[in-house]
Amino acid sequence: MLGHNAGLPVKDLIVPLLNPAADLEVPASDQITHLVETDIHLLSIVLWLFLGIGLPLSLAANIFSSANLLSRVIMPSGILCLSLIALWLLRRQKINATLNVFLWGMTALVCAQCVLVNGIRTPMAAALPVIVILSAWTRGARHSSILCCAIIFALSAMAVLDDRLWPELLPRSAFQYWVIYSFCMVLGAVVAGRLAAAMRSHAARQTQTADELAQRVRELQLAQDKFATFFYLNPVPVSITLLADGTYYDVNPAWEKLAGWNKDELLGKTSTQIGIWVTQAERDAWIEEFRRQSSSSNQPVRFRLRNGDIRYFQASCETINYDGHPCIFAAFVDVTARREAEDALKQLNARLEERVSERTQRLAEANLSLANTVDILQRTQDELVHSETMVSLGSMVAGISHELNTPIGNALTVASSLYEQAREMARNFDGSNITRSALKSFIDEQQHGAELASVSLRRAGELVASFKQVAVDQASERRRRFDLAETMTGVLDTLRPMLRFKPIELLSELPAGIMMDSYPGPLGQIVSNLVQNALLHGLDDTRTGKVWIKARQIDESVQIVVSDDGRGISDENLGRIFDPFFTTRLGQGGSGLGLSIVYRLVSTVLGGSIAVDSTPGQGTSFTLSLPLTAPVGPAGAA
């Protein structure tokens, strides 16, 4: 037995073709549902007629009757009670109970009215045939027969006892006869009309069902023709075998061509008898799996063909009913060539994996060597960065020492003068040669000298504090909240001594009140490097120049611009200025690390960005865009 290819709608196509009766069944449930709905509708109409017409007419016919009170009351009250009870049961979908209560109740009520009035001669007896018709329509022949027999028995009894029980007839008015006959005719007309409408509807549905069945027969015949084409002309091998023992019922020409057996040799034989399975264990396992799932899709199997070749297939099967027997409709795809190609590919992959393993090992060794080289380069870069930092600190220290010389020298001069004056006063005091004017002059000179020394020392202390804050910030890279203007002013104070003997002016526009929660040390080092880069590369000649430092707040960020009016940067060098070790003054004091350090600090520690704009001959402008609050984490780690 062989299977079918994936994606083929086998079960949906084969089951209606091999089981035509399943597709030609009359939808009896639809008819039953319709009949029940018709019964409910008819019963509802009858009940409302009894309640809406029968009750008023009964009251009108009995109110002026000469019969006793019981005869006049029993019919109106009975109609009212029976109608309300029946409507209550009908509302709760209790159809059988509603019919039983109404039919038998009305029959008993009419018979009781006849007994109380004129027996079989009572006009109310005309309603009994209508009740029997309604019973036959809604409850069937058996129930109507029982009800008919009961009514005939009651009428017979009243006929036999007519002379004894009703020797004198109660007078009945023409209105009473009109009421009874009119109501019976209306009720009979309604029941007959509904019965006729139901019969016409039933006949129309029967005609429609016949047309649908004829159309289905034509569609089934067309589907059978298509299936014959699909089965016998399909290039995919297909077979139909008995589920129990694998007896072949039919195969298509493609199956015959591939397997090597023709149909006459196969029909009536099992797959085990022709020996198509390689081993019996494979067939048993496949059958067990198929019985458990009732179908299979693309399941790999092996078959031995008539010429003895063993080939691999992907089989897909469905269970069908063929001539009243459970069978397997199966088709298969020969995947022997693909399997051989997959085996060859696996061998090739194994060889490639061996080669990749060898290459990976050699690459790992090369990577280890490269890692060692990178480590050496990293240490070298760290040493160069440290050297660049030390050079920057050396320049700052030189400027600090020069800046401190003036106030400290002034304080030292004043202190020496005060010391000499004190010695002279001491000599005069020992000789008792002190005059009032000399004492007053000494005091004035001492106060003036002390004031000059205090001012000079205070200036030196302010410079030391400013330089210390800048140095501490750059050394620790500690995060804190600071005012941008105050911090930048301290940084610029450390840079101004380098410009004392140069025709270069350092200008700043730093508005107060821009508060930042960031790293003042890296920010100061960035500004220092940019200013020193302008002095070293843009304004290295003796002509007059200017360097501007401007800042402004934009929403939650601050923009700092460091610009100069120097020679500018050429277009071929503009894209490389942030590369490590790139410099145009190699061997002339340039390390190529200043702007690289600036870029690293801006993009990682401060979490911002830097852009450069330069025109040769017109100067260079560096624009820093920094958040007021530096990022926390790896990007903001100092």
From TrEMBL:
Keywords: ATP-binding, Coiled coil, Membrane, Nucleotide-binding, Phosphoprotein, Transmembrane, Transmembrane helix. The chain crosses the membrane at residues 40-61, 73-90, 102-120, 141-160, 175-197. The lineage of its organism: Bacteria, Pseudomonadati, Pseudomonadota, Betaproteobacteria, Rhodocyclales. This is histidine kinase. It catalyses: ATP + protein L-histidine = ADP + protein N-phospho-L-histidine. Its EC number is 2.7.13.3. It is an enzyme of class 2 (transferase). Residues 399-630 form the Histidine kinase domain. Residues 244-270 form the PAS domain. GO terms for molecular function: ATP binding. Residues 338-369 form a coiled coil.
